[in-house]
DNA sequence: GACTGTGAAACTGTTCACAGCA
DNA sequence: TGCTGTGAACAGTTTCACAGTC
């Protein structure tokens, strides 16, 4: 399949073709009228725009179950990430290979970062250690941090942090599950009990049920502490 | 602190107070004019709306590093999730306790689901096994699936799937990292090279740098295959 | 006086619909 | 003729600003 139309791509992605064309147009005019998009060229252009053509060395700090899972995760290499080092505070881990990479002790953290020109760090430590690790990473030159520890990290301006909460996706599922149950109940009791306030409390958040398996706005932005 | 104002909450959440008040108003009128929101009551109302007051039994299928990490994750219990069972296809895992819960063989999958009234399943298997596990979960009564395997699952209507890709967050960081580098370069070359197309290609996506550490719309919705 | 709740205004994002090109 | 690229219409979201209540 050398070319693809916006219609085909849109169907595969579960969006409408106008949106897809408009989005692509922001990257440039990479399509051909009457024909569609050249697949190979399009993939290259999008990859470049997203930074997939670059090599990003990353370090993973905290080699417990999660750190090991991340180290073994195959998806990284194909997206331009290279695990430059695995770091753990436990001296008995030092030297042990995980996913074929020997674990290094956290004393080495600063020199590893500097020698490999690492800008991206992954924190998979227990909550208690996360802020200290974060501070050391930043001091050594890391400017982007992916945090799996259940703490909010404070960082200086210019450093990006993204926090991944493994339970938030479950919570979103439970939220919809609850709605499903509620709708059944409402359907049974001919005229359901009205919601306390505005009618759009029960808004159009039904999933498209199409190919939509991604994390996106399905839940109010504000959560309890 | 018995009560809290929309202003205080908004500052803590990194949003503006009007938005917060409007959002809360969709749940009902739980505040008091001149006073603010009663913290305990507010937490309860939001928890209820999000389904946190319910007990959700979940099963985790695939007890490798990631499955074990999930089983050990403390955040689940506090959000109303109860790990009803751990399931793995490897017979040598059977009976072995992980996070204090004995692993069960996948032959038991259907009976575990039925006996525990499980509606939510977590798939942490290799990609190859995911669709089969998914089909069995659905056949046994699961209607919400959290998929960590790098495959898109097909499910019948009425079943929710959320796919978690551990590398997508890294990719978002790399995307911003690339922009940081690009901006520096542009700043150095007095008048930077113009983007191929529209001016808003480089849009206002700078992170607020405030308390914003969550996954939210920072990246185009359409990704390469 | 302080703070919520909410219409209306401003803005942002999506979809339509079609001119323009291969 | 078929499909992109894009102004213009539309829809949805956020913010303003203030009336209403404690």
UniProtKB/TrEMBL annotation, chains A, B:
Keyword Signal on entry: no
Lineage: Bacteria, Bacillati, Actinomycetota, Actinomycetes, Kitasatosporales
Gene that this sequence comes from: rex
Organism per entry: Streptomyces thermospinosisporus
Function according to Swiss-Prot or TrEMBL: Modulates transcription in response to changes in cellular NADH/NAD(+) redox state.
Keywords: Cytoplasm, DNA-binding, NAD, Repressor, Transcription, Transcription regulation
Protein name in the entry: Redox-sensing transcriptional repressor Rex
Annotated NCBIfam families: PRK05472.2-1, PRK05472.2-2, PRK05472.2-3, PRK05472.2-4, PRK05472.2-5
Residues of the CoA-binding domain: 51-152
Chain residue ranges for the region called Disordered: 185-225
Biased composition (Low complexity): 187-201
Cell compartments where the protein resides: Cytoplasm
Alphabetized PANTHER family for the sequence: REDOX-SENSING TRANSCRIPTIONAL REPRESSOR REX, REDOX-SENSING TRANSCRIPTIONAL REPRESSOR REX 1
Similarity remark: Belongs to the transcriptional regulatory Rex family.
InterPro entries in UniProt: CoA-bd, NAD(P)-bd_dom_sf, Rex_actinobacterial-type, Rex_DNA-bd_C_dom, Tscrpt_rep_Rex, WH-like_DNA-bd_sf, WH_DNA-bd_sf
Subunit annotation: Homodimer.
Binding site for NAD(+): 62-67
């Amino acid at each position: 399949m050398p070319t693809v139309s916006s219609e085909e791509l849109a169907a595969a992605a579960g969006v409408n073709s106008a949106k897809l064309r408009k989005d692509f147009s922001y990257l440039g005019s990479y399509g051909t009228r009457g024909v569609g998009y050249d697949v190979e060229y399009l993939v290259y252009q999008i990859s470049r725009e997203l930074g997939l053509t670059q090599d990003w060395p990353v370090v993973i700090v905290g080699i417990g179950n999660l750190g090991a899972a991340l180290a073994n995760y195959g998806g990284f290499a194909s997206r331009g990430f290279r695990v430059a080092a695995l770091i753990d505070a436990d001296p008995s881990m030092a030297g042990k290979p995980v996913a074929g990479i020997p674990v290094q002790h956290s004393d080495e953290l600063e020199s590893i970062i500097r020698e490999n020109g690492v800008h991206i760090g992954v924190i998979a430590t227990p909550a208690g250690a996360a802020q200290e690790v974060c501070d050391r990473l930043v001091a050594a030159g890391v400017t982007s941090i992916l945090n799996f520890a259940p703490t909010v990290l404070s960082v200086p301006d210019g450093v990006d942090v993204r926090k991944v909460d493994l339970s938030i996706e479950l919570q979103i599922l439970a939220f919809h599950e609850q709605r499903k149950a509620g709708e059944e109940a409402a359907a049974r009791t001919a005229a359901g009990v009205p919601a306390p306030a505005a009618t759009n409390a029960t808004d159009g958040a039904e999933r498209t049920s199409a190919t939509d398996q991604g994390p996106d706005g399905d839940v109010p932005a504000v959560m309890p502490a």
